Amino acid sequence: MFVRSLNIKEFRGIKACDKALKFSNFTILIGKNNAGKSSILEALSLLPDPKYTDYITRKKKINNLKDLHQGSIKDLLYLYAGTSTLQFGIEYLQAIININEIDTSTSWGNEELSIGKKISELFQVPQEKMSEMVLFIPFTTSILRDLENRMKFLKELIMKKGYHIKLAKFLNECVNDVYSELVFLEPISLRKVYPDNNVYLKLKDLGSGAEKLIKIMALFEVLSPKLIILDDFEAGFHPSMIKLFLKWLKDKNWQTIISTHSIDVLYHLVDIKPPDTT
Description:
This protein has about 280 residues and is α+β, with helices and mostly antiparallel strands. It is built from 9 helices and 14 strands. The chain has one domain: P-loop containing nucleotide triphosphate hydrolases (Rossmann fold, 3-Layer(aba) Sandwich). The strands form 3 sheets. Strands 1, 2, 3, 5, 6, 7 and 8 form a 7-stranded antiparallel beta sheet that branches. It has a 4-stranded parallel beta sheet with strand order 4-14-13-9, sandwiched between helices. A 3-stranded antiparallel beta sheet has the order 10-11-12.
């Protein structure tokens, strides 16, 4: 497990936590709108270091959050002023991020330094791979475009590992048609199988749920991050797609933290029974 706990003080809409939030290897955050679920995930998205590049958007992580809310750093502060403090339990130590309008600083234990560098040493991840360590999928209008750009960058690796075929077969389990492979045309498409020929269909024409599912699965498979963070997890997903995706996640080694509004997700988890779930 990558991150064990999080304590928040004056970040976004959260004034303070009564006590630190504890995470398992598979954590579901469920609640009403404005309950703080997205704020928790956004705080986690700053790992392993707010000044590192977000793999999907190619922006610094702190700037990624700022742009997510179409404003300034002030939009990340409780009531738009003061200092936000995020305290993460990583392994047996504490990593701290302080954010104010002027600067973003980090400390490890009581020592002010780059928490990314310490996390790199702790988990033995090379610096050039650190942006792949934590993958954040927010519910935004631009996420599908950003995911497609990264998929194209990784297409040789996706094909070398055979994921372009495996993902098509996975999709066949939750749609009525039969697809044989993912094809890197412009835009990314699927080869649809007919009795006498094949036809290429744009991935986006299968609906935003199927498009999002295939794109995030492709990235997760190739990059094997330490932590994946999914906001509004079920948005656009057919119920059968939700269950299949949860079953797929169950067998992966990374830590998963997701938010949802849907009680159906919890019913699916009862059936699937992933180990170490909260």
